[in-house]
Amino acid sequence: MHIKKYDFDYSRRLFLERAAKGIVGAGVLAPLWPTIAKSGDATTAYPEELRSISAYTKGKLKPGDVLTADNVDIVKDLLDPIAYRQVKEMGRRITLVETTSDVTKLFPHEYLEATLKNKGKAKLDGSGNTFNADGKPWIGGNPFPEPKDGVEAFANLTLSWGRHDQSFYAVRDWDISPGGTTSYQYDFCWAEQNTTCLVNNPDGPYWAGHEDKLRYQSVFFIGPNDVKGTSFVNTWYYDQAKFPDLFGYLPAFKRERRFPTNQRFEPLVPGITIFLSDAWAAGDPMLTWGNYKVIGSKPHLGSVSQNWMGDDPNWERKVHGGPKGETFFDTYMELIPEVMVVEAEPVGYPRSPVGKKRVWIDVRNMMFVAYVTYDRRGEIWKSFEPGFSQYKTASNVVMDGKNPGWSWTHVHSHDIQSNRMSRFVQAKSITGGYNSSWNQGSLYDKFLTIQAVRRLGA
To answer: Pfam families given for it (predicted)?
Structure first.
């Protein structure tokens, strides 16, 4: 009798064996990143069952099918627990699409090039900070495309959130009550400016004079009028054990103030479920969290392609589900051949209401595709589920330099304990004439200083 080495369950057995031995790897038939570097096609590192939802489900589901309460149990193991409950109990629908084979569609172009060029040059020092081989701050791209542990995996998330040197997101948010109606609607802007790890800077990977920092980041609310002018600015240090400087401007008090570090675990404005800590599943310096643990690897469903609504005038999305048909965005998910599942605890925040977080990271681009937090009792609390896409459709494209753009498109932020949902999109434009963009010149003086926050608030 001939036993096939790569039978249908080979991948599952391999993932279980790696988990039992504490081995962290990427790829099944071949190591992932050498395969990507050679062909740009990640799928050849995996057998058919991990690159085809039809093969994985043995024909029960295929691209174009829609997950509903009637069929979601077929792929329960491919969803985080809150996403599963949303489909099973709350009327959410998820459309399945083909698995992306071309890795260039999962990155901004320059960031992928930097990842390939700089592979193998990153090192962790004794404290866990990431440095280039010459001892200077990291020089751009994913520092650890083949991470050996959870700390290296989180370095990929933390050092460049949006994978652009700078980003300006015009965000439109809807906050859905437990009864299914829109209780709040906000327009706000989110700005990010990296100072190190740069990939588009003609003067190299560092912004001169700011090498001790990692990024400046701000968020300011444009509407409605009762929160207009509410603004926050974060200054992140390159040392990931240092807490950011967090200042805010509250229009009711007509002044800016410094906020304590535990303000990172509170809603930004009434009704919203988003915390600063939630950003990119790595909203706090990574060494203020600890006990990083890779708990396994597995296939997963994630919104990583075909999610840009570029044919809508403002890139907005249709909604469905929940008690009033308003709770969820229409979303598209593909079978990701392999995710790394990492847990961490907020060791630097003794008063944090979060007990731990669990993050599912697509090993093809080392970006998170699902994120769930647990409270101090160990009960599941919130999910922060992103959608990503190349900004290109059959009839429209947004260019990032000479190449189609890539970025996040939408987020579901669901507090499952209160059953409040914040869902928001990266819109083309919002109130006040603010437009989304990447790498369009320095944001610092306009949006990323205390003076700018005061000006925006006024």
So the answer is: DUF1329
